[in-house]
Design a protein that fits this description.
It is a single chain. The protein contains nine helices and five strands. The protein is of the alpha/beta class. A five-stranded parallel sheet has the order 2-1-3-4-5, sandwiched between helices.
Length: 257
């Protein structure tokens, strides 16, 4: 065989291998966010008894199963396949007006997250780690009170911690892995789910069970405060928010520098 052809074939094979490696790494980096969105759809569907949301979750699981399997992440694909089947069955049961028994499905999401972490560590552990070291980043959700511009400007100019803004609960859940916040601040005014609901969703994932969560509330009654802490929140501030108080509470709960 011509040596030039042999060299071309080897180079082409190397390029394909490198391309697949980069594709796998990119997909692996996105998997935690995909898992969070899947969990979010499931929790919303369960809370609202919405078969359509459970079907959406099943579709997400189906997509993860196929792509993860194609790229060699067998453990992730296997668990996603189980979720796909169980969620599809649950949605069908809900469509018939029957109780689907969703409690049994919840624990499988933690297994999926564990499989994703294990897949990350099987590669270059430092490069593919799903969660960076905890930092002093605040994830601010649905911050609109007191005039959006003035409030966003207040936190954006803060020099003692970084701030990332998202509009609603779905975005917050999907961005947890990317931003790895040291604290989550959730305004009372969010699109879709309430700040109490968003806090519960965060707490449903064992990986985020200890991250400090501060909620903004308008009602300082005993019932309101009880609801805040029952949701799993660490602390709360009253609206309208006083800038110095908010800074102090965030500083008190963030990990030390």
């Amino acid at each position: 065989m011509n040596s030039d052809i042999v060299k071309f074939n080897r180079d082409a094979s190397s390029d394909v291998s490198q391309g697949l490696s980069e594709l796998s790494a990119a997909y692996l980096a996105e998997l935690p966010s995909m898992s969070q969105l899947l969990r979010y759809d499931f929790i919303c569907g369960k809370m609202n008894k919405d078969a359509a949301l459970i079907e959406t979750a099943a579709e997400r699981a189906h997509q993860i199963r196929g792509t993860a399997g194609s790229l060699g992440f067998a453990g992730v694909s296997k668990i996603a396949s189980v979720l796909d089947q169980l969620l599809t069955q649950a949605a069908a049961v809900m469509r018939r007006g029957e109780e689907p028994g969703l409690e049994e499905i919840g624990s499988i999401f933690d297994e999926l997250d564990m499989a994703i972490r294990e897949s990350s560590l099987q590669g270059d552990g430092s490069r593919f780690s799903c969660r960076p070291s905890a930092g002093r980043t605040v994830l601010a959700v649905g911050c609109t009170f007191g005039g959006t511009n003035s409030f966003l400007g207040l936190l954006s100019q803060e020099s003692t911690f970084d701030v990332e803004f998202v509009a609603d609960g779905a975005a917050a859940i999907s961005m947890l892995e990317q931003f790895n916040p040291g604290l989550v601040f959730i305004d009372e005014s969010t699109a879709g789910a309430t700040n109490l609901d968003i806090c519960r969703m965060i707490r449903c994932n064992s990986r985020w069970s200890q991250v400090p969560v501060i909620l903004a509330v308008s009602d300082a009654s005993l019932e309101s405060r009880a609801a805040v802490f029952a949701s799993g929140a660490t602390d709360f501030v009253l609206r309208p928010v006083v800038a110095d108080e908010l800074r102090a509470r965030i500083g008190a709960h963030l990990p030390p520098q």
